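Structure first, sequence second, as always.
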Protein backbone atom coordinates (compact mmCIF):
# COMPACT_ATOMS: atom_id res chain seq x y z
CA UNK A 1 0.00 0.00 0.00
CA UNK A 2 1.34 3.44 -0.94
CA UNK A 3 2.36 5.61 1.98
CA UNK A 4 0.66 9.00 2.20
CA UNK A 5 2.70 12.18 2.46
CA UNK A 6 1.84 12.67 6.12
CA UNK A 7 2.59 9.02 6.90
CA UNK A 8 6.05 9.42 5.38
CA UNK A 9 6.92 12.19 7.83
CA UNK A 10 5.44 10.33 10.78
CA UNK A 11 6.90 6.91 10.03
CA UNK A 12 10.10 7.07 12.07
CA UNK A 13 12.28 9.30 14.25
CA UNK A 14 13.32 12.80 13.20
CA UNK A 15 17.04 11.99 13.01
CA UNK A 16 16.35 9.26 10.46
CA UNK A 17 14.08 11.51 8.42
CA UNK A 18 16.72 14.26 8.38
CA UNK A 19 19.01 11.80 6.63
CA UNK A 20 16.32 10.39 4.34
CA UNK A 21 15.57 13.90 3.03
CA UNK A 22 19.04 14.20 1.51
CA UNK A 23 18.62 13.84 -2.24
CA UNK A 24 14.88 14.54 -2.20
CA UNK A 25 13.78 17.26 -4.63
CA UNK A 26 12.14 20.44 -3.37
CA UNK A 27 9.82 22.25 -5.80
CA UNK A 28 8.42 25.78 -5.66
CA UNK A 29 5.85 27.06 -8.13
CA UNK A 30 6.63 30.75 -7.82
CA UNK A 31 5.74 33.91 -9.76
CA UNK A 32 8.66 33.36 -12.15
CA UNK A 33 7.84 29.70 -12.83
CA UNK A 34 8.82 26.33 -11.42
CA UNK A 35 12.03 26.19 -9.37
CA UNK A 36 13.56 23.11 -7.82
CA UNK A 37 16.65 21.72 -6.14
CA UNK A 38 17.96 18.63 -4.41
CA UNK A 39 18.32 18.77 -0.64
CA UNK A 40 21.98 18.36 0.33
CA UNK A 41 22.02 19.45 3.98
CA UNK A 42 19.60 19.20 6.91
CA UNK A 43 19.47 19.67 10.68
CA UNK A 44 17.25 17.72 13.07
CA UNK A 45 15.51 19.47 15.98
CA UNK A 46 14.09 17.22 18.67
CA UNK A 47 11.39 19.17 20.43
CA UNK A 48 10.92 19.63 24.17
CA UNK A 49 14.18 17.97 25.21
CA UNK A 50 16.36 19.82 22.68
CA UNK A 51 17.77 23.05 24.12
CA UNK A 52 18.35 24.40 20.60
CA UNK A 53 14.78 23.72 19.45
CA UNK A 54 12.01 26.31 19.33
CA UNK A 55 9.78 23.93 21.31
CA UNK A 56 12.31 23.36 24.11
CA UNK A 57 10.60 22.75 27.44
CA UNK A 58 7.23 22.72 25.68
CA UNK A 59 7.35 26.32 24.45
CA UNK A 60 4.40 27.07 22.17
CA UNK A 61 3.45 30.37 20.55
CA UNK A 62 1.95 31.80 17.39
CA UNK A 63 5.42 31.88 15.85
CA UNK A 64 6.21 28.18 16.34
CA UNK A 65 2.66 26.82 16.08
CA UNK A 66 3.56 24.83 12.94
CA UNK A 67 5.78 22.58 15.04
CA UNK A 68 2.69 21.17 16.74
CA UNK A 69 0.94 20.28 13.49
CA UNK A 70 0.98 17.03 11.53
CA UNK A 71 4.01 15.64 9.76
CA UNK A 72 4.62 17.27 6.38
CA UNK A 73 3.60 20.74 7.55
CA UNK A 74 5.69 23.72 6.37
CA UNK A 75 7.36 25.70 9.15
CA UNK A 76 8.94 29.01 8.12
CA UNK A 77 10.44 31.43 10.61
CA UNK A 78 12.70 34.46 10.49
CA UNK A 79 16.04 35.11 12.14
CA UNK A 80 18.40 38.05 11.56
CA UNK A 81 16.15 39.16 8.69
CA UNK A 82 16.35 35.81 6.89
CA UNK A 83 13.58 33.30 6.21
CA UNK A 84 14.32 29.67 7.11
CA UNK A 85 12.47 26.57 5.93
CA UNK A 86 11.57 23.47 7.93
CA UNK A 87 9.44 20.36 7.57
CA UNK A 88 7.52 18.90 10.53
CA UNK A 89 8.43 15.27 11.05
CA UNK A 90 6.23 13.79 13.76
CA UNK A 91 2.49 13.37 14.49
CA UNK A 92 0.39 16.31 15.63
CA UNK A 93 1.40 17.50 19.10
CA UNK A 94 4.99 16.23 18.86
CA UNK A 95 6.98 19.41 18.03
CA UNK A 96 9.92 18.11 16.04
CA UNK A 97 11.20 19.08 12.63
CA UNK A 98 14.04 19.31 10.16
CA UNK A 99 15.67 22.52 8.94
CA UNK A 100 16.59 22.47 5.25
CA UNK A 101 20.08 23.99 5.17
CA UNK A 102 21.40 23.42 1.65
CA UNK A 103 19.98 22.93 -1.83
CA UNK A 104 21.59 21.96 -5.14
CA UNK A 105 19.70 23.87 -7.87
CA UNK A 106 17.98 21.89 -10.61
CA UNK A 107 15.16 23.77 -12.33
CA UNK A 108 15.26 27.54 -12.70
CA UNK A 109 18.84 28.23 -11.67
CA UNK A 110 18.94 31.46 -13.68
CA UNK A 111 15.88 32.76 -11.82
CA UNK A 112 17.52 31.79 -8.52
CA UNK A 113 20.63 33.76 -9.48
CA UNK A 114 18.51 36.81 -10.28
CA UNK A 115 16.71 36.46 -6.94
CA UNK A 116 20.08 36.39 -5.19
CA UNK A 117 21.49 39.16 -7.41
CA UNK A 118 23.83 36.66 -9.03
CA UNK A 119 26.42 35.68 -6.40
CA UNK A 120 29.97 35.42 -7.69
CA UNK A 121 30.06 31.61 -7.42
CA UNK A 122 27.15 29.34 -8.25
CA UNK A 123 28.05 27.33 -5.15
CA UNK A 124 27.22 30.37 -3.02
CA UNK A 125 23.70 30.45 -4.42
CA UNK A 126 21.89 28.04 -2.09
CA UNK A 127 24.52 26.82 0.39
CA UNK A 128 22.74 28.02 3.52
CA UNK A 129 19.18 28.12 4.86
CA UNK A 130 18.67 31.85 4.33
CA UNK A 131 20.36 31.79 0.93
CA UNK A 132 18.17 29.02 -0.47
CA UNK A 133 14.98 30.79 0.56
CA UNK A 134 16.18 34.02 -1.05
CA UNK A 135 17.09 32.08 -4.21
CA UNK A 136 13.61 30.57 -4.36
CA UNK A 137 12.10 34.01 -3.84
CA UNK A 138 10.26 33.03 -0.67
CA UNK A 139 10.55 36.11 1.51
CA UNK A 140 7.40 36.06 3.61
CA UNK A 141 5.44 33.73 5.89
CA UNK A 142 2.50 33.04 3.58
CA UNK A 143 3.41 29.35 3.19
CA UNK A 144 3.86 28.79 6.91
CA UNK A 145 1.42 26.19 8.33
CA UNK A 146 0.55 24.90 4.85
CA UNK A 147 1.27 21.33 3.73
CA UNK A 148 4.11 20.24 1.49
CA UNK A 149 1.58 17.91 -0.14
CA UNK A 150 -0.80 20.59 -1.41
CA UNK A 151 0.91 24.02 -1.46
CA UNK A 152 3.05 25.84 -4.02
CA UNK A 153 6.05 24.48 -2.10
CA UNK A 154 6.29 20.71 -2.22
CA UNK A 155 8.68 17.78 -1.92
CA UNK A 156 9.01 14.84 -4.27
CA UNK A 157 9.69 11.67 -2.33
CA UNK A 158 10.48 9.73 -5.52
CA UNK A 159 12.33 12.14 -7.88
CA UNK A 160 15.60 11.96 -6.00
CA UNK A 161 19.34 11.46 -6.08
CA UNK A 162 21.21 9.07 -3.80
CA UNK A 163 24.29 10.20 -1.85
CA UNK A 164 27.49 8.21 -2.05
CA UNK A 165 27.99 9.02 1.62
CA UNK A 166 26.23 11.02 4.33
CA UNK A 167 28.22 12.86 6.99
CA UNK A 168 27.00 13.90 10.44
CA UNK A 169 28.30 17.00 12.24
CA UNK A 170 27.25 19.50 14.91
CA UNK A 171 24.56 21.97 13.96
CA UNK A 172 25.65 25.46 12.93
CA UNK A 173 24.99 28.61 14.93
CA UNK A 174 23.66 26.89 18.06
CA UNK A 175 25.88 28.67 20.57
CA UNK A 176 26.74 27.28 23.97
CA UNK A 177 23.89 24.82 24.55
CA UNK A 178 25.56 22.15 26.72
CA UNK A 179 25.56 18.78 24.97
CA UNK A 180 23.33 20.15 22.21
CA UNK A 181 26.07 22.39 20.84
CA UNK A 182 28.15 19.37 19.82
CA UNK A 183 25.31 16.95 19.08
CA UNK A 184 25.84 15.51 15.55
CA UNK A 185 22.40 16.46 14.26
CA UNK A 186 23.46 18.12 10.99
CA UNK A 187 23.53 15.78 8.01
CA UNK A 188 24.89 16.46 4.57
CA UNK A 189 25.88 14.86 1.28
CA UNK A 190 29.62 14.30 1.61
CA UNK A 191 31.69 16.55 -0.67
CA UNK A 192 28.69 18.28 -2.24
CA UNK A 193 29.70 21.88 -3.10
CA UNK A 194 26.27 23.29 -2.15
CA UNK A 195 26.68 22.29 1.50
CA UNK A 196 27.21 25.33 3.73
CA UNK A 197 30.79 25.97 4.80
CA UNK A 198 32.11 23.19 2.53
CA UNK A 199 35.86 23.84 1.99
CA UNK A 200 36.86 24.04 -1.67
CA UNK A 201 39.47 21.33 -1.14
CA UNK A 202 36.70 18.94 -0.01
CA UNK A 203 34.33 19.55 -2.93
CA UNK A 204 33.68 16.78 -5.43
CA UNK A 205 33.14 18.66 -8.69
CA UNK A 206 32.72 15.50 -10.79
CA UNK A 207 29.55 13.97 -9.35
CA UNK A 208 28.83 16.33 -6.42
CA UNK A 209 28.79 13.34 -4.08
CA UNK A 210 25.90 11.49 -5.74
CA UNK A 211 25.69 7.92 -6.93
CA UNK A 212 25.65 7.58 -10.71
Amino acid sequence: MTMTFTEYFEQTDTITIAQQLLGKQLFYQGPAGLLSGYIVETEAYLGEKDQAAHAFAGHRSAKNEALYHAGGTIYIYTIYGQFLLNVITQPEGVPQGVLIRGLQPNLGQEVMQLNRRQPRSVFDLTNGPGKLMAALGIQDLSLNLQSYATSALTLSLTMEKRPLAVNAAPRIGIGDKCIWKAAPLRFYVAHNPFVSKMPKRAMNLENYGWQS
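Margin note: Residues 25 and 159 are 6 Å apart (CA to CA).
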